[in-house]
TrEMBL record:
Residues 295-420 form the Arf-GAP domain. This is Arf-GAP with Rho-GAP domain, ANK repeat and PH domain-containing protein 1 isoform X4. One of its GO terms (biological process) is regulation of cell shape. PANTHER family: ARF-GAP WITH RHO-GAP DOMAIN, ANK REPEAT AND PH DOMAIN-CONTAINING PROTEIN 1 (PTHR45899:SF3), RHO GTPASE ACTIVATING PROTEIN AT 15B, ISOFORM C (PTHR45899). Transmembrane segments: none annotated. Its main location: cytoplasm. GO terms for cellular component: plasma membrane; trans-Golgi network. It comes from Bos indicus (Zebu). The gene is ARAP1. Residues 1-72 are annotated as: Disordered. Residues 24-41 have a biased composition (Acidic residues). It holds the Pfam family PH. It comes from the Eukaryota.
Length: 1210
């Protein structure tokens, strides 16, 4: 046989190059098959504009041409985003064409540790063909300068320029194959040969613009791989792969198309349907996220051998984890773990959730991890029920339900079934380093929040903290909301409410858009909606191409729906739309032609996913309905799932235990804030006497709820009733302005008569109207005249006016009544007819003007002048009608009678004015004109020079605000269960009083003597007090205590007498002292006392100080001092001693509870650093409270004799 003559390489014509992945002579079906026949396929040329050519470096560094050093055996395990492998060898080679002809094609060939690839040019980013090194069985020489690369199914022939070059290529290939096989033997990640057996995240056929035939595309990790067909995908021999670290995906104009863009090419794909396109987009976006992630955490956790394989199916290199179960899992199992719900498994990525992985959590996974996890959770898995890496999603779901929700395969603890003993064992285990024991106890039902029996450390978490067991603390925190496994458990929805939802059926044509993974910020045009036949049946919402289609385009299970939202009409292209949010973080938008159709669908879907427990919510015309994890009350350790409905500005809530609560009035919230980081956000809603924490477990629907609640809590219009309101139905915008002027403008000359700058006034008013609750007015930033002008403009611009259009004329006519009593009576009658918000606002405004005219000698604004300003403003007249001013003047002059101001309310108002007057007079009398606020020295933890802080105290500052400011100045962080409190310390009495968090500081400062001061420190007894109140029923306390009264002889202040047993009863109104206990009532357990108490004091007038003077020789060290101030400002003082510290805490807790209507401690003190307030009371002269008490008294002697004289002259 004669050898066929071959032309020299220099005479081989170059193949005609087209701007595609394939050149002429190569097609998508049989490239590189040697002499085998191929099917003929005609392919269209791709327009040049569709592909972007990028100039890569034309020369490679010499370092890349040297063979890579043999890797460590563990390097065979891929970690993190696939690193770009070093090039072992690269250069030009002639490649044998598909038909084996003599027309050689010159190719740039590149070999690295994983692939042999060839390109049209050394500047191309994407190959024409790649062959995994793991697929190569051998490399052989076949003649002059030629060699073959042989795989199990294909042979690739190449020709080098010389025999020496051929030898180099063959050696490099043989070494790469040998190293690949060595790595494969060490790692069980892949079977020997095809590395392409790595499971894909998503795969299927797609059309690629420029090719008539579909390509087979696979998303694998952080890459997108292109193959000619399914067969070649199975062989692992592909066209090219795209590194998604430089990729981006976006939807194209065609509903089924999308573009994968890179700096070098644009790949335009088309799917079979919209649903399929959505799946591809989701998979490719996941690949991008993985490509941009970091593998540092994964590498550290994989240092333990069991953590290198999925705890559930055994797949290699799992890059997800359940942080409460402490197991490392693969991506496929992670998806099913999410389906279990956060109450069973909290799933986080090892590579993307960087903030989650603290050093403590990483160490916890190294201590427990898959070894300990499977030792407990998978102790009894039958081989027939074990998962494999290639198990189907349904098989995974069933297995994980049995493993973690039911605990079917767990190793039972010897104490299983005995709850009391389990809890005791857990409390003992958390004080040791035995994490596996803690895991077993919790997995068998021990209560993570059980009571330990120790008031100082009442929970296992507190015990672990006390013992310094940081890993135990981390494990307990991650399991605070974990549900214990139950063999009889069912789906989460059924389990929560112990009912099966009724079957709801409905069907019709509905318009829908493609599902989204984020909130819809932009308007969706009508053209973006597709008409679909939708069927709701058996708890599944399915949508079809048309009513005759058999296979649905997609479906939504009712059990997966977490929220149903109804946007306002005309939000999108269809007038009536609704949104469905699912557990898988997807949002589905539906549109209908008529309101009736929309209402019917919304009603049916709501009935399908809302349990009977919350069916009352369905009767409301809600804007948003769904379930959310929440915390409330004093039980803040464990989150529960509740049902919520947003209707207008009201948020209705139904909790698993207990009746439907009163709705939260969102416009009346005292606080609306978002706390935590971006990964663990919590929405805090504070209303009077209750606080609700809504957790952002699912980011998509949480952000929807957050935006809707914030919008509902904001002002929705120009009328008073549409504003944000305070506790007394006073608009926050009015309260903010009035409070600011009360503090800083009462002595400002011409207040309300002078106008502020128009631009500043309008800017301030706009921000107040947008969200007055979040606006903090500060002196230096806003001038009092700007604030006063904003308030007047707001009142003048009210559409209906403050006195309403209907009643305006009646008010003006009433001012002409000559008889004063009859006129005042008429005013009272008209006031009662006003809407509640208008009535409250009128009272608040007139009360404020009443205070302003008290300072008319300084501000030149007496009652008449204020009436001239506010008459036309409030009645919205042109100033010509004198009767408007007369009404305002009458209301100010007869303020107490018209508004039925009682003595207590007037006293509080006078005290506030008195404080301001004292400061003004003190500054004038001393001859000093200090610019600043009332200054006080406050100490941190103890009284010493280095711990003192000089603080400006505005009239509105509370004890909580002062505490936070001191901590902020010293950069002291507030940890969980740190009860920082401001104390009033009386050195002479050797006693201290913890200030209530809402108590105003300024009045306390005026009463401090030279031997008293304020100190901020931790309240060591507060936690025990809160636990007592949480378990105590009722508002009363009674019991025996040692009692001693402070009786002074001849006014010399010398106490007499000793301590005696007395019986005390404390209730919501008074404290009663009985001399003796007569008998015991056997049926009630309460002692029977004499009917008439020996002494009785109103409870709200008492001040309770911890401690008793040592010179009184108290019988126990658990005593407190009680001071009562009479109406004549006379002080009575006595001392009480308890038998135990716990008894003392119980009495103190009850005192606080009844004095402050149950608000003993704020549910969640603000963690936000508080800026030092720049506060100034107009031009009042202020002095620091650091001089002697006598000096301060002498400087205001005239005023101190009759502090309310100024008010009496009004």
């Amino acid at each position: 046989m004669t050898k066929k003559e071959e032309p020299p390489a220099s005479q081989v014509p170059r193949a005609v190059r087209v701007a595609s992945l394939l050149s002429e002579g190569e097609d998508l079906s049989g490239d590189d098959q040697g002499d085998e026949d191929e099917d003929d396929y005609a392919y269209e040329r791709v327009p040049n504009g569709d592909w972007h050519t990028s100039s890569l470096s034309s020369s490679l560094p010499s370092s890349l041409l040297t063979p890579e050093l043999p890797p460590h055996p563990m390097d065979g395990l891929p970690v993190g985003p696939t690193p770009t492998p070093l090039v072992i060898k690269a250069g030009w080679l002639d490649k044998n064409p598909p038909q084996g002809s003599y027309i050689y094609q010159k190719r740039w060939v590149r070999l690295d540790a994983n692939h042999l690839r060839y390109f049209d040019s050394n500047k191309d980013a994407y190959s024409k063909r790649f062959v995994p090194v793991a697929c190569i069985s051998r490399v052989a020489a076949i003649g002059d300068q030629k060699f073959e690369v042989i795989t199990n199914n294909r042979t690739f022939a190449f020709r080098a320029e010389s025999d020496a070059e051929r030898k180099e290529w063959m050696q490099a290939l043989q070494q790469a194959v040998a190293e690949q096989r060595a790595r494969a033997r060490v790692s069980s990640a892949y079977p020997l040969g095809v590395q392409g057996s790595e499971p894909h995240d998503h795969a299927g056929s797609l059309e690629l613009r420029g090719f008539k035939n579909k390509l087979y595309v696979a998303v694998v990790g952080d890459k997108v791989e292109l193959y000619k067909n399914l067969e070649e995908y199975r062989l692992g021999i592909g066209i090219t792969f795209i590194d998604m670290s430089v990729g981006n995906v976006k939807e194209a104009a065609d509903r089924r198309s999308f573009d994968l863009t890179t700096p070098y090419r644009i790949f335009s794909f088309s799917a079979e349907s919209e649903l399929e396109k959505e799946q591809w987009l989701e998979a490719m976006q996941g690949a991008i996220a993985e490509a941009l992630s970091t593998s540092e955490v994964a590498e550290r956790i994989w240092a333990m051998a069991p953590n290198r394989f999925c705890a559930d199916c055994g797949a290699a290199q799992p890059d997800w984890a359940s942080i409460n179960l402490c197991v490392v899992i693969c991506k496929r199992c992670a998806g099913e773990h999410r389906g279990l719900g956060a109450g069973i498994s909290k799933v986080r990525s090892l590579k993307m959730d960087r903030k989650v992985w603290t050093e403590t959590l990483i160490e916890l996974f190294l201590q427990l991890g898959n070894a300990a996890g499977n030792h407990f959770w998978a102790a009894n898995v039958p081989p027939s029920e074990a998962l494999q890496p290639n198990s189907s999603p349904s098989a995974r779901r069933c297995h994980l339900e049995a493993k973690y929700r039911e605990g079917k395969y767990r190793r039972y603890h010897p104490l299983f079934g005995n709850q009391e003993e389990l809890d005791k064992a857990l409390c003992a285990a958390v004080t040791t380093s035995d994490l596996a024991e803690t895991q077993a106890l919790l997995g068998c039902g021990a209560g993570v929040n059980c009571f330990s029996g120790d008031p100082k450390a009442p929970t296992p978490l507190a015990l672990a903290e006390q013992a310094g067991q940081t890993l135990q603390m981390e494990f307990l925190r991650n399991n605070r909301t974990t549900e214990a496994p139950r063999l009889d458990s069912v789906r989460p929805l059924e389990k929560h409410y112990s009912v099966i939802l009724p079957t709801v059926s409905h069907s019709s044509f509905v318009y829908k858009t493609a599902s989204a993974g984020k909130l819809l910020q932009d308007r969706r045009a009508r053209e973006e909606f597709s008409r679909r036949w939708c069927v709701l049946s058996d708890g599944v919402l399915s949508y079809y191409e048309n009513e005759r289609a058999v296979t649905p385009n997609g479906e939504i299970r009712a059990s997966e729906i977490v929220c149903l939202a109804v946007p306002t009409p005309d939000t999108h292209g269809f007038e009536h739309t609704f949104e469905v949010y699912t557990e898988g973080e997807r949002l589905y938008l539906f549109g209908l032609e008529t309101a009736e159709q929309a209402r019917e669908w919304i009603k049916c879907i709501a009935k399908a996913f809302v349990p009977p427990l919350a069916e009352d919510l369905l009767a409301r015309d809600f804007e948003r309905l769904g379930r959310l994890p929440y915390k409330a009350g004093l039980s803040l350790q464990r989150a529960q799932e509740g049902w919520f409905a947003l209707t207008g500005s009201e948020l209705y809530a139904v909790f698993p235990e207990g009746p439907c609560e009163e709705p939260l009035q969102l416009r009346k919230l005292q606080e609306l804030s978002v706390q935590g980081d971006s990964e663990n956000q919590v929405l805090v809603l504070v209303e009077r006497r209750r606080t609700l924490y809504i957790q952002g477990e699912r980011r998509l629907d949480f952000m929807g709820w957050l935006g809707a609640i914030q919008k509902a809590a904001a002002s929705s219009g120009d009328t008073l009733s549409e504003q944000q309101l305070g506790d007394s139905d006073i608009p926050v915008i009015v309260y903010r302005c009035v409070d600011y002027i009360t503090q800083y403008g009462l002595t400002s000359e011409g207040i309300y008569r002078k106008c502020g700058q128009t631009s500043k006034t309008l800017r301030l008013l706009e921000s107040l109207r947008l969200d007055a609750r979040s606006v903090r007015l500060k002196e230096g930033e806003q001038h009092v005249d700007d604030v006063s002008s904003a308030l007047k403009r707001f009142l003048r611009d009210l559409p209906d006016g403050l006195f309403t259009r209907v009643q305006r004329l009646a008010w003006l006519e009433a001012s002409e009544i000559e008889d004063e009593e009859e006129k005042v009576s008429r005013y009272r009658e008209l006031l009662a007819r006003l809407p509640p918000v208008n009535r409250a606002t009128v009272k608040a405004l007139i009360s404020h003007l009443y205070c302003v005219q008290c300072f008319s000698d300084t501000n030149q604004m007496n009652t008449h002048n204020l009436a001239i300003v506010f008459g036309p403003t409030l009645f919205q007249t042109d100033g010509q009608d004198y009767k408007a001013g007369r009404v305002v003047e009458d209301l100010i002059s007869h303020y107490v009678v018209v508004f039925s101001v009682d003595e207590e309310e007037l006293r509080k108002q006078r005290e506030e004015v008195t404080a301001i007057v004292k400061m003004r007079v003190a500054g004038t009398a001393s001859g000093t004109q200090h610019a600043g606020d009332f200054i006080c020295t406050v100490y941190l933890e103890e009284k010493k020079a280095e711990a003192e802080q000089h603080v400006k105290i505005p009239a509105s500052m509370t004890a909580e605000e002062l505490t936070l400011e001191i901590l902020d100045r010293r950069n002291v962080g507030i940890r969980e269960k740190d009860y920082w409190t401001c104390f009033e310390v009386n050195e002479r009495e050797e006693a201290e009083r913890p200030l209530h968090f809402a108590e105003k500081v300024l009045p306390i400062l005026h009463g401090l003597g030279t031997d008293s001061y304020l100190v901020v420190k931790k309240h060591q007894s507060m936690e025990a007090m809160l636990l007592y109140l949480a378990s105590h029923v009722g508002e009363t306390k009674h019991g025996m205590m040692k009692f001693r009264e402070d009786r002074s002889l001849l006014g010399l202040g010398l106490p007499t007498g000793g301590f005696h047993d007395r019986y005390f009863i404390l209730n919501s109104s008074c404290l009663r002292l009985y001399k003796e206990v007569r008998s015991q009532r056997p049926w009630s357990g309460a002692p029977e006392t004499s009917h008439r108490p020996e002494k009785e004091w109103p409870v709200r007038s008492l001040k309770v100080y911890l401690g008793v003077k040592k010179k009184l020789r108290p019988p126990t060290c658990w005593g407190f001092t009680v001071i009562h101030e009479t109406e004549k400002h006379e002080k009575q003082q006595w001392y009480l001693c308890c038998e135990t510290q716990m008894e003392l805490r119980e009495w103190l807790a009850t005192f606080l509870f009844v004095q402050h209507d149950g608000l003993v401690w704020p549910s969640e003190p603000s963690r936000v650093s508080r800026a030092a307030p720049e506060v100034r009371l107009g031009s009042i002269s202020l002095i620091p409270l650091r001089g002697s008490e006598n000096e301060m008294r002498r400087s205001v002697a005239a005023f101190s004799a009759d502090p309310l004289s100024l008010l009496r002259n009004v």
